[in-house]
Amino acid sequence: MTDESAGIGPRLRVGYVPGVQPDKWLTRWRERNPGVPITARRVGDPRPDLARSAGDDGFDVIFLREADDAPRSAPPGLLRIPLYTETMAVLAGKDHELGAFDTLSAEDLEAERWLDPVDAVTATPEEVSAAVDLVAAGIGLLALPLPYARSLSRRDVVARPLEGVPTTRTGVAWSPAREGDELIDEFVGIVRGRTASTSRGAGEPPREKRTAREKTAAKARARAERGTRPAERGMSPARGKRRR
To answer: Which CDD domains does the record associate with it (predicted)?
Structure first.
């Protein structure tokens, strides 16, 4: 964004949900755009703080979480590109026997006691933390996206990949009012893997290939402009090969 009236130059502000690790994208941005500061802040749900126009307070771009079976079309009021499906995890107290396994399925844990589900999409960080406190106390198990579970850095619980349960996915989103914003387009391109050599505006667009007839006509025009005939350049008009 740019707020010229306030004397502030271009900058980009990113909001992201717990479990998303934007560091690599921030690093690439700083390498390619050293003159445009970028900041990032983790929040429970960044959508309410999304800037609807350049100069507004809030985030210019956000990383959000949604159910993996949510419509592929963007939620109302957002432009959104889905990124990746998250592996789910089961959380238990650190001394629970499931810590001996690398991966578990829902069927493996049918006999276990589970806490009431916590919706990682809508729950606040405080609600998730309270549920994990119950897990640490041995009250029951809890399912969360694995990246979210790891971001909690809790030493009193153990997390293992869990199969056979509904998954979540992440996406990058921005306001429809900011469609065509060059800074946002550049950042989204970085997130999607666009390299510096393929960034928008980098270099000239590729030239269309010409047919053999077009090439021949172009050569004839060039010779005519120079006023030079083939024979005068040591070429045989009949055969078109250079004389030895």
So the answer is: PBP2_LTTR_substrate
